[in-house]
Description:
The protein is of the alpha+beta class. Among the domains are: 173-216, no CATH class; 267-320; 341-380 and 426-614, no CATH class. It is built from 13 helices and 23 strands. It has helices spanning 23-26, 63-75, 170-174, 270-277, 279-282, 300-304, 309-320, 330-339, 435-442, 445-462, 474-490, 534-537, 542-554; strands at 35-37, 42-45, 51-52, 59-60, 86-87, 102-103, 105-107, 111-114, 120-122, 137-138, 149-153, 156-159, 165-166, 186-189, 200-203, 209-211, 244-247, 255-262, 357-360, 371-390, 419-433, 502-507, 517-525. A hairpin with a 4-residue loop joins strand 1 (35-37) and strand 2. Helix 4 packs across helix 7 and helix 11 (474-490) packs across helix 13 (542-554). The longest helix is centred in the C-terminal third of the chain and has 18 residues, at 445-462.
Amino acid sequence: xxxxxxxxxxxxxxxxxxxxxxxxxxxxxxxxxxxxxxxxxxxxxxxxxxxxxxxxxxxxxxxxxxxxxxxxxxxxxxxxxxxxxxxxxxxxxxxxxxxxxxxxxxxxxxxxxxxxxxxxxxxxxxxxxxxxxxxxxxxxxxxxxxxxxxxxxxxxxxxxxxxxxxxxxxxxxxxxxxxxxxxxxxxxxxxxxxxxxxxxxxxxxxxxxxxxxxxxxxxxxxxxxxxxxxxxxxxxxxxxxxxxxxxxxxxxxxxxxxxxxxxxxxxxxxxxxxxxxxxxxxxxxxxxxxxxxxxxxxxxxxxxxxxxxxxxxxxxxxxxxxxxxxxxxxxxxxxxxxxxxxxxxxxxxxxxxxxxxxxxxxxxxxxxxxxxxxxxxxxxxxxxxxxxxxxxxxxxxxxxxxxxxxxxxxxxxxxxxxxxxxxxxxxxxxxxxxxxxxxxxxxxxxxxxxxxxxxxxxxxxxxxxxxxxxxxxxxxxxxxxxxxxxxxxxxxxxxxxxxxxxxxxxxxxxxxxxxxxxxxxxxxxxxxxxxxxxxxxxxxxxxxxxxxxxxxxxxxxxxxxxxxxxxxxxxxxxxxxxxxxxxxxxxxxxxxxxxxxxxxxxxxxxxxxxxxxxxxxxxxx
Length: 621
């Protein structure tokens, strides 16, 4: 993130924007309640109540996702808007910046450290920011005769498991609750190395001093006051947790909960979705006869040709009433649609206006044993919606990619009934495993024993976990590990970096009525043009990529230590991984759905110290 310091903004008195964030980042990494470092300041992104769309809202549509999220939020006693549910973040204008438009943020933290004397001072005691960078200045003894020394935001804040955030109570903490120091004069001394063990706070007025390491034990932590500054000064709530000292740039300071869905035509619901997406036109009609007015124009002509006016008007009334249609779960519906596509034909191209186009691939070589089919999705439109966030520990979605809204999830707004969203246009490859082969593999004695060992590690992890999702099963470990190996293998030839390819796993439990065992590797961009087809072309050569993935997974640079890793008895507390590490399976977290957890390459390919019967691909494809 950067900020222009030039003054070429059209007007002399126009202040350039403090920083830049892409719309897709606002819905993920830098959503409401997240902390962002600018060049000269640190800020906290405001909640949706402080987002202003003065130039109009860009509404995104996905009826299937809207209906499912409405059910999820209803369970938490939160009502979403019937229409205009998903809204893109407001785009700023650098040429005409307006503080009343866009995503508002507040300065956080407001405690600063002087770069000369190491004084720890609140912003209210520093005056107005000055200079080109608009930094706070501290007029300490070392720089009293000059303009003052630069101040930087203190790098420590307070957070709790419930997602609350506040300033660390520096004066009260260093004095350990005593009120005998009338005028505290605090300094933050970080030692020669800056290591956490050497950081201490000193009060020059009374001589009190305390190490930050003293805040590690739970008994020494202050009690959380339930502050939610991104929602406003009066948004406190009751909290019984103890606060933790948090480095504001730490990766565990913000975990966005994003639920996504592909825009796919569900059979039997095409008319309902079309009417919902074009409601601004249809709601003008008060009778079935009036619908005839739009039948001659596209896209209405094509979409309505199979339906009479009475059926369309009946559907319109259902949409207006907010009546939700019975649907399959999010990923189950996608899996059905993708796997039911016809075989590709030479010269067949997707329609320019369509958002979905997929065909079963005709591969260059026969598919290896264990692989049922490969689907080439030349056009995919994914809608990503942020539903909340957590701090300190990430919540794990279920196998449908959904979250429990009520489990320590912090809200994005108090008085808004819409959610921030962004669209990604791209392409993908769906690799579907042979269901009969997967079921036979799950019954092998070696797999059952490994499943038991993975469950033991999972139970050990549950002892300290704040979120307790159900165990996904050995099938998920297989699919997830295979996905990571394929991403590493395909990225070498498809023209996209491994960090630009994302996984989407379709996995079912034994109790599900629709069996699923497939992985979708996709890439995309937020632009209207999407991608160039480099990933899809690799789908026809899937056998070669599976061979490369087999070679990557068979031997790790950390073997035999990696292959012999025990999920339950790991002193590093990696309870959710089998044979997996940075040398073999870990990929960029932006590509992984589970933060590089639930991985075990021993279930995919033969590894040192394990019987080949354990691997789904016991022989090289």
